[in-house]
């Protein structure tokens, strides 16, 4: 199928808006194959994937994950009756809990990040017998009704009201405002991202997260760490909150947990916080949650993440990227105002949203995929897979250098 015909099919039978987005992207190709850090378009053009909204931490078509799935399918088990249990679920639960800090001893599987957030909302309310929830400014927790209520983006919420009513927005890193809110004693859960993704790759100050942790303990509020984008090694730690030495009651995982192949997310919790779901499993369940294919994927992913060289490898490649971005910032500080993040989760902050959009389009046309920050139009995300090679970083640096030079040229000619 040619490119225009594909867009017409999407326009006719799906979202006209998405057809427009794909059409104006400037790529002129649709993805046909992918492997490692690279995507190949239907005309043969190759794109270095440093975007995809942080989905492919373990690369495209990871052989370990694919082999695990093929082995399971050859054994004849792909779905679950939900009446009989299956061995994959038990092994996957144990594997994921083993990957989490020791105070987190229980887990459940769902199908998307937003579903995991919804489960956490319910669990916070069930455990504490309170209704109110709190989130930070700049937050993003999803687009389903409950998750959207905790997302700091007015545009996503427009005309979707009424959402959850008992929600408090806390200014990020404002400890006084946080204590004022929690001291009321009626907030069930505080949702945080140790590194905010959609909000602009903003690492929340460890001192603030430590204060939040202590205040949650003091006032009986459950602390929920949303690691859906930042978890599983992306920041150079298995979990981004580990940089702050805190112990969340609930941790949410997703995106990379499915290896970029199978939709799966997870809620991981302390035994105490999880107790309502222990007492009544029907309080929150999912037909496809914890299916054999998802569980086999989780097992393979946790094996990769537990490998001795995994985190050092992420740190090394993160250092390559940091050096490249520092060079670009020094060279084009009038266009690229700052670079933030850790490991393989980096934010490119531009002095205007025009520069950000221009860079995004230029890179796409040239063969480098980045992701925008939907809640912060002046920031682009650079979130490559851990299988990135040094030559890939050199390529990324070269394309970005051209893009930033292009932005400066446009500025000088205007």
From TrEMBL:
<dbReference type="GO" id="GO:0030170">
    <property type="term" value="F:pyridoxal phosphate binding"/>
</dbReference>
<protein>
    <submittedName>
        <fullName>Putative aminotransferase</fullName>
    </submittedName>
</protein>
<comment type="similarity">
    <text>Belongs to the class-III pyridoxal-phosphate-dependent aminotransferase family.</text>
</comment>
<dbReference type="InterPro" id="IPR005814">
    <property type="entry name" value="Aminotrans_3"/>
</dbReference>
<keyword id="KW-0663">Pyridoxal phosphate</keyword>
<dbReference type="InterPro" id="IPR015424">
    <property type="entry name" value="PyrdxlP-dep_Trfase"/>
</dbReference>
<keyword id="KW-0032">Aminotransferase</keyword>
<dbReference type="Pfam" id="PF00202">
    <property type="entry name" value="Aminotran_3"/>
</dbReference>
<dbReference type="GO" id="GO:0042802">
    <property type="term" value="F:identical protein binding"/>
</dbReference>
<dbReference type="InterPro" id="IPR015422">
    <property type="entry name" value="PyrdxlP-dep_Trfase_small"/>
</dbReference>
<dbReference type="InterPro" id="IPR050103">
    <property type="entry name" value="Class-III_PLP-dep_AT"/>
</dbReference>
<keyword id="KW-0808">Transferase</keyword>
<dbReference type="GO" id="GO:0008483">
    <property type="term" value="F:transaminase activity"/>
</dbReference>
<dbReference type="InterPro" id="IPR049704">
    <property type="entry name" value="Aminotrans_3_PPA_site"/>
</dbReference>
<dbReference type="InterPro" id="IPR015421">
    <property type="entry name" value="PyrdxlP-dep_Trfase_major"/>
</dbReference>
């Amino acid at each position: 199928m040619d490119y225009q015909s594909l867009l017409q099919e999407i326009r006719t039978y799906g979202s006209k808006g998405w057809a427009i987005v794909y059409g104006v992207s400037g790529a002129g190709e649709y993805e046909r194959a992918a492997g490692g850090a690279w995507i190949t378009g239907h005309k043969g053009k190759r794109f270095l994937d440093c975007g995809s909204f942080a989905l492919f931490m373990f690369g495209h078509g990871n052989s370990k994950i694919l082999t695990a799935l093929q082995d399971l399918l050859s054994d004849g088990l792909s779905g679950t009756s939900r009446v009989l249990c299956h061995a994959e679920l038990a092994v996957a639960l144990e594997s994921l809990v083993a990957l989490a800090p020791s105070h987190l001893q229980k887990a459940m599987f769902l199908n998307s990040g937003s579903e995991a957030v919804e489960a956490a909302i319910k669990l916070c309310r069930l455990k504490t017998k309170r209704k109110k929830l709190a989130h930070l400014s700049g937050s993003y927790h999803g687009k389903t009704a409950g998750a959207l209520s905790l997302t700091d983006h007015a545009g996503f919420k427009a005309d979707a009201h009424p959402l959850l009513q008992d929600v408090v927005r806390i200014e990020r890193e404002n400890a006084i405002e946080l204590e004022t809110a929690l001291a009321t004693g009626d907030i069930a859960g505080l949702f945080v991202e140790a590194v905010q993704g959609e909000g602009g790759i903003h690492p929340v100050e460890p001192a603030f997260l430590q204060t939040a942790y202590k205040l949650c303990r003091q006032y009986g509020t459950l602390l929920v760490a949303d690691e859906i984008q930042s978890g599983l090694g992306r920041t150079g730690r298995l979990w981004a909150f580990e940089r702050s030495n805190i112990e969340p009651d609930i941790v949410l995982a997703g995106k990379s947990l499915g290896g970029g192949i199978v939709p799966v997310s997870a809620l991981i919790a302390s035994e105490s916080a999880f107790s309502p779901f222990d007492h009544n499993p029907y309080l929150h369940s999912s037909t496809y949650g914890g299916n054999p294919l998802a569980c086999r994927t989780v097992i393979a992913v946790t094996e990769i993440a537990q490998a001795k060289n995994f985190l050092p490898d992420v740190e090394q490649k993160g250092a390559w990227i940091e050096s490249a971005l520092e060079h670009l910032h020094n060279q084009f500080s009038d266009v690229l105002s700052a670079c933030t993040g850790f490991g393989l989760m980096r934010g490119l902050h531009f002095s205007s949203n025009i520069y950000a959009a221009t860079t995004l389009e230029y890179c796409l046309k040239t063969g480098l995929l980045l992701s925008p920050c939907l809640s912060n139009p002046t920031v682009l995300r650079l979130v490559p897979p851990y299988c990135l090679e040094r030559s890939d970083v050199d390529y990324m640096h070269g394309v970005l250098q051209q893009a930033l030079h292009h932005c400066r040229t446009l500025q000088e000619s205007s």
